[in-house]
Structure to design on (409 residues):
């Protein structure tokens, strides 16, 4: 056994150095930036909007990283919880015509390579965007529940945590949403 | 990593990286707050200079567990195999030591509330990796009356993990897993907790290093 195999955790408060916390944030970022970008790419075809919302999510994440407790849930769940709030704020801003008031950190002019990169990601989310469009009749809460479980791949427990509801409430949303979608599909088939 | 992702990360660190330096993460707290863990690689178990109170072997080979009393009266519990939990607990019970080894897993929903009274005089004097076992040494006399030293045990292919904390009342049936440490990512998730690596300490068996753990705060 090498001494490097032993790792100490001091009691009570995790004593992470600034470098340790930065390394931890980078790991969280790199593991989750793609699914978070995809989450917004299913909601907008505008590369600048997708970039802004992704940036805003991670600005919120890095500025509150000290409060993130891995013992209470996976980083992906935490980030999707932030992304959901970011998107709600975005919709509120859009409705109020306050897009121009986006935080500076969330508004960055993209270069050509980044636009090309994001356009490819937006194109890749076309099937997901189509699904969400077809789910348009569902209440937003049910639509989000189905998306997090069936597209993102979170467990019902994780999706419940991301949405801030109990697992039971999440399962009810899923049940209702899937029942409506089945019914809608049958009606479509019957019309043909 | 794409052009957008790299650029965004660079921007984040430039604009907000400094905030990480001043961030203070709250205690792991109510779930497994004073836990400490030792990860060790597989090898042989050896405990010299101590009175061996109980040992059970697995497959006629290395001991699954060992409970020993040191010359200073401290108790050392070593687990090399998860099957040794039962034997170790029986031995601890015979000795009247208020310590219990329990499985540690992510599926465990038990609420573990460390006793803050134990922080002033931490009963744990050392945690070490000896061969393939996780080992914790503690002073049973420093465990507050009515409290229990809980030893969370978890085995993987090449490692045994052991975490210790003092709780009020009896031990729970299990303890929640500590988050992944350092580069030990699990389930495709990035490692979410970084510990302080310590250098080699004294060797208790002459064949492998022992790593001391700082007293609890």
């Amino acid at each position: 056994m090498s001494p490097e195999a032993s790792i100490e955790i001091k009691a009570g408060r995790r004593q992470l150095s600034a470098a340790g916390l930065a390394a931890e944030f980078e790991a969280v970022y790199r593991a989750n930036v793609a699914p978070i970008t995809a989450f917004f790419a299913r909601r907008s075809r505008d590369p600048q909007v997708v970039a802004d919302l992704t940036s805003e999510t991670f600005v919120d994440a890095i500025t509150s990283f000290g409060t993130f407790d891995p013992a209470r849930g996976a980083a992906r769940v935490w980030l999707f919880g932030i992304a959901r709030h970011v998107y709600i704020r975005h919709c509120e801003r859009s409705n109020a015509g306050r897009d121009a008031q986006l935080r500076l950190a969330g508004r960055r002019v993209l270069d050509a390579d980044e636009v090309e990169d994001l356009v490819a990601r937006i194109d890749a989310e076309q099937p997901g965007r189509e699904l969400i469009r077809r789910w348009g009749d569902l209440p937003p809460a049910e639509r989000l529940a189905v998306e997090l479980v069936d597209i993102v791949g979170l467990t019902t427990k994780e999706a419940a945590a991301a949405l801030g509801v109990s697992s039971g409430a999440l399962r009810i949303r899923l049940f209702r949403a899937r029942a409506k979608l089945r019914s809608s599909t049958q009606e479509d088939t019957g019309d043909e | 990593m794409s052009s957008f992702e790299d650029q965004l990360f660079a921007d984040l660190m430039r604009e907000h990286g400094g905030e990480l330096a001043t961030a203070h993460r709250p205690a792991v707290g109510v779930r497994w707050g004073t836990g400490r863990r030792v990860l060790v690689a597989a090898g042989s178990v050896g405990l010299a200079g101590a009175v061996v109170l109980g040992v059970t072997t697995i497959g006629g080979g290395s001991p699954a567990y060992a409970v020993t009393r040191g010359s200073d009266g401290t108790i050392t519990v070593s687990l090399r195999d998860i099957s040794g939990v039962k034997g170790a607990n029986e031995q601890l019970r015979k000795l009247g030591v208020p310590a219990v080894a329990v499985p540690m897993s992510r599926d465990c929903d038990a609420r573990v509330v460390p006793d803050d009274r134990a922080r002033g005089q931490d009963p744990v004097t050392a945690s070490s990796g000896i061969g393939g076992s996780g080992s914790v040494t503690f002073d049973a006399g420093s465990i507050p009356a009515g409290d229990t030293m809980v030893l969370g045990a978890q085995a993987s292919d090449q490692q045994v993990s052991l975490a210790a904390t003092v709780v009020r009342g009896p031990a729970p049936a299990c303890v929640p897993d500590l988050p992944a440490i350092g580069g030990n990512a699990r389930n495709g998730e990035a490692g979410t907790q970084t510990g302080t690596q310590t250098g080699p300490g004294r060797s208790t068996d002459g064949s492998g290093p022992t790593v001391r753990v700082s007293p609890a705060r």
Remarks:
- Chain B touches chain A through 76 residues (CB under 8 Å).
